[in-house]
Amino acid sequence: MIPVEALRVVGGSRLSGEVAVTGAKNSVLKLMAAALLAPGRTVLSDVPEILDVEIMAELLRRLGCHVVHDCAAGTVAIDVPEALEHRADYDLVRRMRASITVLGPLLARCGVVDVALPGGDNIGSRGLDMHIGGLQRMGAEVTSEHGYLIARAGSGLHGATVWLDFPSVGATETLLMAAVTARGRTVIDNAAREPEIVDICTMLVEMGASIDGVGTSTLEIEGVESLAPVAHATVADRIVAGTWAVAAAITRGDITVRRAQPAHLEIALDKLVTAGASVTTLDDGFRVVMEARPRAVDIVTLPYPGFPTDLQPQFIALNAIADGAALVTENLFEARFRFVHELVRLGADVQTEGHHALVRGREALSGAPVEATDIRAGAGLVLAGLVADGETTVHEVHHIDRGYAGFVDDLQRLGADISRIDLPG
Ligand code: EPU
């Protein structure tokens, strides 16, 4: 039997101290894909040491790039050749859905791209219809064969006006990267406005792209002939920062989060104030202090600047031990409530009905073995374990490793009783 790793958490510690966040997973993966648009060397800094960066590096290597991830320096250097391969294989897409981010840049560079269809994943069906519809408007022919999405634009892409049904992060990124070197003007209406979208727009503009309306829901892109590689620092990870904020609140602790941008977390931090925390904004981050039992807070997830779905499980964990009852509404990923079944194993009182969850706060949770069903569910379960009585073992820890660099070390430094353990496979 090959041992599998799990996290062992013993609840009861009040977390206090300082922690620094690195660049955002959900930005750096897209910045790595954007590098494909310009032959030559792109250097990204503030790169987190997480599994998904390794998977994206492997994908870029298979496309013909030379990629060096210097973990100590937090950089990734990508040497992009003139001639690229144009296939993203199933074994990588299956491991990391964000692999489909290469769709736009490869189509723009090669005029053809084959990307394995990601299929369903642990947080829902996650369609590609808006990616495909937008590329078709820009002149691509898109088919699906043998589990691969194949897009062709033999005579190049042209500008178009695209209205997204929903401000999809992924579709906005695909169309943006396809549009920057397309012939003419592209307008993406109802575009996503997440800080990670602003980050990729900023890098594309540094590379020579012409984009108006950055940070708004209408992006206007005037295609340029070619782009040049640049050095770019990744925007701070607001979801990791938000997870630390909840860690302070749930353990009645005192955590200062450095290298974070509180402006990217306004609603989440405001919810913590409603829950009874004191939140102070600092020059390079923020501090969250919680003295008493948190009060329950209602949550409705929405595209940015609404409350982020990627902090929903952490806030359900907080509500599970809060004073009162809270209604949590999930509007982005229908299957994200799967993690509730695990939280209930810790004694939480949560009822789900469609995309609503009613959480009745309990005085205490009780440690038990649980399973992380995705990255954020994993974070939510660790937070719950920090306040559960006795020992909680979080299985499927690889999910957490996909998104949280040095999580266990940071938790230990803040005073948590947590360690990685090997269990029989
Ligand atoms: N959708 C469609 N059709 C499309 C595109 C999206 O129906 O063509 C639907 C999806 O099924 C989903 C919703 O729209 O229900 C949101 O999808 P979106 O495209 O906005 O999200 P994404 O690009 O797939 C990124 C992050 C997620 C984050 C969401 C929302 C990455 C790699 N992933 O996903 O992050 O939750 O935006 O902010 O950037 C995570 O980090 O744990 C994570 C899941």
General description of the model:
The protein is of the alpha/beta class and 425 residues long. It folds into two domains: 4-21 and 236-423, UDP-n-acetylglucosamine1-carboxyvinyl-transferase, Chain, CATH 3.65.10; 25-226, Alpha-beta prism (UDP-n-acetylglucosamine1-carboxyvinyl-transferase, Chain). It is built from 14 helices and 26 strands. The strands form seven sheets. Strands 23-25-1-26 form a four-stranded mixed beta sheet. It is globular and about 65 Å long. It starts with a strand and ends with a strand. The site of uridine-diphosphate-2(N-acetylglucosaminyl) butyric acid has 24 residues, from helix 1, helix 5, helix 6 and helix 12.
- Give the bound compounds: uridine-diphosphate-2(N-acetylglucosaminyl) butyric acid
Strand fraction equals: 25-35%
Apparent shape: globular
Strand neighbour order, sheet with most strands:
23-25-1-26
CATH-scheme architecture of the largest domain: Alpha-beta prism
Query: Got a strand count?
Result: 26
Task: Outline the biggest β-sheet.
Answer: 4 strands, mixed
Number of domains: 2
**What is the share of helical residues?**
25-40%
| Unreliable segments of 5+ consecutive residues | none
Q: Can you identify the CATH superfamily of the largest domain?
A: Enolpyruvate transferase domain
How far apart the termini lie comes to: 5 Å
Instruction: Give the helix/strand class.
Output: alpha/beta
Count of alpha and pi helical runs: 14
Mean pLDDT: 95
CATH class of the largest domain reads Alpha Beta
CATH topology of the largest domain: UDP-n-acetylglucosamine1-carboxyvinyl-transferase, Chain
Q: Rg, please?
A: 21 Å
